[in-house]
Amino acid sequence: MPAPARFRRLVLAVAHGEAGPATLRAAAEAARLLRLALHCVLIEDEALHLLPALPFARELRLPTHEWRPLDPAHLAQDLAATEAALRRDLAAIAARLGIAQALEVQRGDPELCMGSLCVAGDVVVLAAAPAGRPHLAARLHHAALHSAAAVLLLPAAPPPPAAPVAVLLSGPDDPALATAARIALDSGAILLAVLAAGDSGAVAQRAAQLGIGADRLVVRAAAGHRLPALAAALGITRVQLLVLDPAAWDGADNDGPDLAEALSHARGVPVLLL
């Protein structure tokens, strides 16, 4: 069964020095779960290329441990080495998981580059913020969360793939159920539906129409739309993915993206915002 028609690829943007294999592996596993190609974009910050021209810019050279003026040739070599390592790791991980992949290099302001990637039809990966660059990560997250793209919040240590797929429903008619049901069917996972308000029977009826039988569905009623009630309904169950449609939560007690980030951080679970 193909991925939902609105999704065409999973986009992972990484800045220089942040292309860790753990992040690549987690994004590739998410692409396999969603049945999407993984499109990795290496963003070369334009500010890095301007540093050698600054008279006070210095670099620590090994093994002599001497401070020297920045050498544009050394910078170019470092950037090329980063691209080569990323290309090699991406190809190896994609081949092992059996997914399509591509690597693109963009040069410019990271926030503007991220904005250009966030288009309707794509799922943009937001990985856990790298140490030492929280402000940049916050700006990139803001750009993605307020864009036309769907967003996948990826925690530092995702749960095991054998866990259920979960969906947060503001009500029985929440459109996120259709996407979550298709992902659960594709992966062979149990579907856990957390219902903030409404009739659980109506959710089961819709799930059955989507191909999720009673033996593959768990519906848990939450005591409202607030984060503590939803977290309590999830309980201690580890899930491999949590699906949420922010538009369905407009006017609720909390904002959809804020709720998603809180749950992703607190529970260590990837959250797909449609």
Query: Roughly how many Å apart are the termini?
Result: 19 Å
Quickly name the level 1 CATH class of the largest domain.
Alpha Beta
Question: Per the principal axes of the C-alpha atoms, what is the gross shape?
Answer: elongated
Write the CATH homologous superfamily of the largest domain.
Answer: HUPs
CA gyration radius, whole angstroms: 21 Å
How many distinct folded domains? Answer: 2
- Major sheet: order of its strands? 5-2-1-6-7-12-11-8-9-10
Topology as a string of helices (H) and strands (E): EHEHEEHEHEHEEHEHEHEHE
> What is the number of strand segments?
12
CATH topology assignment of the largest domain: Rossmann fold
Largest sheet: 10 strands, mixed
Fraction of residues in helices? 25-40%
Number of helices: 9
Report on the architecture of this protein.
This protein is α/β, with parallel strands linked by helices. It has 9 helices and 12 strands. The protein has 2 domains: 9-154, Rossmann fold, CATH 3.40.50.620; 165-273, Rossmann fold, CATH 3.40.50.620. Helices cover 39% and strands 24% of the residues. The protein has a 10-stranded mixed beta sheet, with helices on both faces. It has a two-stranded antiparallel ribbon with strand order 3-4. The model is unreliable at 1-5 (pLDDT under 50).
